[in-house]
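Render this sequence as a predicted structure.
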Amino acid sequence: MTLQLPDATGALRTYEPRQEPLALTPGAPLACRTVFSAAHVVADPFADVTPDSPAAVDWDATLAFRRHLWSHGLGVAEAMDTAQRGMGLDWTGAAELIRRSAAEAKAVGGRIACGVGTDQITAGSLAEVRAAYEEQLALVEESGAQAILMASRALAAAAKGPEDYLEVYGHLLRQAAEPVVLHWLGPMFDPALEGYWGSADLDAATDTFLEVIAAHPDKVDGIKVSLLDARREIDLRRRLPDGVRCYTGDDFNYPELIAGDDQGFSHALLGIFDPLGPLAAEAVRVLDTGDADGFRALLDPTVELSRHLFQAPTRFYKTGVVFLAWLAGHQSHFTMVGGLQSARSLPHFARAYRLADGLGLFPDPKLAEERMRNLLALYGVDQ
């Protein structure tokens, strides 16, 4: 059987789907790198909601997907931008997600870290930003999860310069019960974060970021860098204090950053490891044996898919992530909170399917083919 898939010009091209998946099974915990998958949420397709309504989440399917990631030895980065924080999932929904996922992690022995932000407010004074961060930090710590201090749109709007970032983050780190992960999310993921750390000059912003860490190294487990700039990440991780990790968030250059060089390497906290979870875990297990070439041989071919999903406007990568979860059978539908399933085109979906199928990512290729065929029919593509 073949499929007629539209290319970037809209012309139909014949594609012959793969017949067998890549053989990937759950395995031992990962040893040489700490690896988190930022996980998506599954919408409730039967909820009577609008794009402006609070998110309606299918909790059973959402938690089942986290168990899938844990079974392969991955950690879960919860309530991050992959879970549509600020793009369909509000703080009330995120708080419930954190509580449920943290309890599930405790039950199955899975590693979890959760996003701490300020999305219960849209704007405010520095004092109001601090209070919003404090509320979320308290909830994450009470849940028993590690905290990830996410970049804040409200702080970006309220801060007058680097000193305001130093004050707010210093305040939060002093009161954090355990070491946290600091998250630097670039404006390609969220345009409202332009000029974060007090400057649009990335060199100046980096200096402020490092100043925050240097003042509280005992309270910083690591940093998550999502700037899609491998050289800048490498330079930054070489300037970190001893004991502070770099978790790559670079969905364009992750194989080389995780593999590292003779001066160090990055751990990982990646949205692309949502659809790549089992394959990524297998690659890191190969790296555990010291086989860097084997690691790259497994992971390098996935970069074309990742760069496709994360193409500009990058913030809509979540649509491709959920699309692949549907094709892979992790959920019964392709519906997203906030109606975000409409954020990418049919040619985009077609290429994502072709690339993922070529990698053998679908546990049941026939199911993926059937669902892709149904989507094509919905768009009026006759086979």
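Summary. The two ends are 10 Å apart (CA to CA). The beta strands are 3-6, 12-15, 35-38, 75-78, 112-116, 146-149, 180-185, 220-226, 245-248, 267-270.
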